[in-house]
Every structure is written in structure tokens, then in C-alpha cells.
Amino acid sequence: MDHAVAERGNGRAIRKIQYFGLGLVIEHAVEFHVCAERIEIAANSVFHFDIAPHFHPKRRTRFVRQLIDEKSGMALDGRSLFPLTAKAYNNGESKKSKLGSFLT
């Protein structure tokens, strides 16, 4: 099955999204510092980060809570798949940040 994988390294921002099937590699630098575990996502979808501020007062880092498919409203949190509205928070303000669009 075709899928894409987003990975992080040592708390750094996600830089690479690799699409398996065509072998397409997309370099993606987000505008905020995020952390995420290895996340497998379906191809041909647009995803948003659902982010929340890290609770360290000096480090204004963010961590990825879910990846949300804006077409189906489904979210991947690494453990389960469940319906969720595409909403994200950045310093208390609602914000959407596109992870990427995967085209075949």
C-alpha cells in the first residue's frame, strides 16, 4: 500500500516527508519547531498539524499531537484513528498549518 512517512530527529523540526510507492521525497521545513514520532500517513491527502505549546517556559517548542486529514476529518495520533475536526492551537490561537499535499 502506498503511504508517506514523516520522521523527526532528536526534537528537530520535520524536514522530510517521503512518499513510498513512487519514491517521491519532499523536503518540508515547517514555520515552527515541532517534534513528532514516526508517522505513517495515506497518500493523496492534505494534512494539518494539531500542535500545542510545550510546557517548558524558556523553550517555545511545539509538539505534534495529531495529523489531521482535512478531507475525511480523520486524525492519526500514532495509536488510533478517530474522527476529529481540523483544529490546531499555537500560543492559544487557532491555527492551521499544512503538512503537505501528496500527488500521484
Describe this structure in a few short sentences.
The protein has no helices and eleven strands. The protein has strands at 3-7, 16-20, 24-27, 39-42, 46-53, 62-69, 74-76, 81-83, 89-90, 93-94, 98-101. The chain has a five-stranded antiparallel β-sheet with strand order 8-7-6-5-11, with no helix packed on it. It has a four-stranded antiparallel β-sheet with strand order 3-2-1-4, with no helix packed on it.
Blueprint (SSEs and pairs):
Elements: E1 3-7, E2 16-20, E3 24-27, E4 39-42, E5 46-53, E6 62-69, E7 74-76, E8 81-83, E9 89-90, E10 93-94, E11 98-101
Antiparallel strand pairs: 1-2, 1-4, 2-3, 5-6, 5-11, 6-7, 7-8, 9-10
Structure description:
It is a single chain. With 104 residues, the protein is an all-beta fold. The protein has one domain. The chain has no helices and 11 strands. The chain has strands at 3-7, 16-20, 24-27, 39-42, 46-53, 62-69, 74-76, 81-83, 89-90, 93-94, 98-101. Mean pLDDT is 40; it is low at 8-71 and 73-104.
What is the 3D shape?
A: globular
Category from helices, strands and their pairing: mainly beta
Mean pLDDT: 40
N/C terminus separation:
13 Å
Main attributes of the structure:
104 residues; mainly beta; five-stranded antiparallel β-sheet; globular; disordered C terminus
